[in-house]
Amino acid sequence: MGGDNSPDKTIEGVKIFLNKYKSLDDFELKLYGDKNKIYEKLVQYKVSNKFINIIHTKSVVADNETPLTAIKNSKNTSMWNCIKSQIEGESDISLSAGNTGVLLVVSRMILKMIDKVSKPALAGLWPNKKGMNVVLDLGANIECNDRNLIDFAEMGSALYKSLFPKDQPIVALLNVGSEEIKGTEILKIAYKKLRELSGENNFNFNGYIEGTRIMSGDSNVIVTDGFTGNIALKTAEGTAKFITDNLKKSLQKNLFSKISILFSYFSLKSFKEKLDPRKYNGAIFLGLNGPVVKSHGGTDAVGFFYSIDLCYKIVKGNLMQQIKNNLDHLNENQE
Amino acid sequence: MGGDNSPDKTIEGVKIFLNKYKSLDDFELKLYGDKNKIYEKLVQYKVSNKFINIIHTKSVVADNETPLTAIKNSKNTSMWNCIKSQIEGESDISLSAGNTGVLLVVSRMILKMIDKVSKPALAGLWPNKKGMNVVLDLGANIECNDRNLIDFAEMGSALYKSLFPKDQPIVALLNVGSEEIKGTEILKIAYKKLRELSGENNFNFNGYIEGTRIMSGDSNVIVTDGFTGNIALKTAEGTAKFITDNLKKSLQKNLFSKISILFSYFSLKSFKEKLDPRKYNGAIFLGLNGPVVKSHGGTDAVGFFYSIDLCYKIVKGNLMQQIKNNLDHLNENQE
Question: Domains, chain B, ranges and CATH?
Fold first, then answer.
């Protein structure tokens, strides 16, 4: 029910997903919310209800709800019941386009933190030259110590392995320089520990990287505190928007350049497709006893489809088992 | 003498500068370094020596010099003598494309910090939708307290006023959200203090901004700690490179798109010009008893020209007086 233009975009996103996975039958989509509204939209968008299970809830989390008031007000909302179904063994993963702050609080209340994880983190996908990065933390924790950063490296690598089982995770710590002497004391301690943990069965540690190298493809699991990660992600978004806006403006300047748009149409189309932010829609909340994915509230049906697809891949890739393996490896090395 | 391909690029940069300011005679350029090499290049690039004064120095700061060893080894190098000329009243500003770490240490040793400034900062120019931002700190201090951030706001506003005398500086604090409750304790204290300092004779304080809004043009003096500022700047650089590389690749994909390059040539030219990083070349070291500008070591003659131009504007805009005014205003408000 959450996010702009819901449940239209969620139901249309479901439709795109079902079309993509026509040949598969190893999933079920439980839709939590107002059953009349959902049913109406399923009919409107002509969605087959073969793999769909509607669970009616009377209330939803309001947009203006804060994490503080949510504890009292969110019980039995669609968000609450959705996440609750995970501990009741009714589902493997939750997806919401609703209020982020409330989602983090409610997820943590219901699912509880994994033993021995120091802090949960919000991870996101970010394109790089060779494919895709996992970047974390994107803002769940504005202050982090070395222990948190190491947990993020282990959980981020687990996420990477579950999404890209053929590739080896390569971890890098985001810093103001690549030399060993650079950065805060917290980073220096994390650096040493990650070098010890680096290995074939876990992840390769690639040292420090600067912001310029996030998208170079040399590393694919980028670890940082939630303050820096949030600023980096949003600065990249702002920069991308600034550049594409300027590109559009330049191409529309005069008749000559207007003709060029026609000629550029196909080449710019592939450019736009590669950079389409909807493809990276979905932040993954890691460190709880069950995965929760947050879709951007402002995305459309295609963006929401990519979030459902991400959820499917996370479950098929056994994220929770991968996290357990990595944390076991970490604990063995800390004993 | 510093940076890649020097003194070729420095001398060619000087030539571009002299051509631009042909009608003016209110400046002198002192060139510190090997006089034979400099003279040879002045002849090679046919640079008139009317406004040029060569000051011979036997040694230069090596690329591999660290800030720690520089204190011993940098005396009487071109960099040292150049900055020294400021306290001797021989020059108003120093510009170098050499070793950044050494430049910061040597500048601080020779020029000393301004009384009552808590920490010096490295400020840079960054394009926004309406014109230009001043962003600081870009990496001089990886850890900052609220006092430092307030000093950065005052000094950054002074720099903005000296460069863009017709505009009012609008200060924003970089944060993970725009609501007052977001961010670290340090940011919250700085926020309160900046709101008190905000006013017509100083700067307007625009509150917190997220990374997405750095380039929106709503604010033009972006204040943050050196760790975050460095990551944000370099992430923006990396994102810009990723996007333009992808654009180039898409445009060169097939014959059809190759033809489109011809048609797009003029529109993409204006796009490229607007985003040319050489236009923003030059980081300004603020908080010392004299301004020092660091050109990117890897820039070319055009980039170096923009740094000389920046120096000229800083001196004409009376940066040191603007900083003094702002600090006086700050001290009055703290009494």
Answer: 1-112 (3.40.718.10), 126-280+316-335 (3.40.718.10)
Element (H, E) at B326: helix B319-334
Comparing CB atoms, the residue among A139, A257, A274 nearest residue B176 is: A139
Alpha carbon of B188 to those of B70, B73, B146, B173: distances in Å?
38, 43, 8, 10
- ipTM computed for the complex: 0.91
Task: State how far residue B115 is from chain A, nearest Cα, in angstroms.
Answer: 27
State chain A's maximal CA–CA distance in angstroms.
Answer: 70
CA-based nearest residue to B154, from B117, B113, B200, B104:
B117
Nearest CA in chain B to A248: B271
> Per residue in A161-220, pLDDT tens?
999 999 999 999 999 988 888 899 999 999 999 999 999 889 999 999 999 999 999 999
What is the four-CA torsion angle of B212, A4, A14, A133, rounded to 10 degrees?
Answer: 10
- pTM for the model: 0.92
* Burial category of A227 from C-beta neighbours within 10 Å (exposed 0-12, middle 13-18, buried 19 and up): buried
Which residues on chain A are in Cβ contact (under 8 Å) with B176?
139, 142, 226-227, 230-231
Compute the Cα dihedral for B29, B32, B33, B35 and give only its sign.
Answer: positive
Interchain contact, A237 vs B139, CB within 8 Å: no
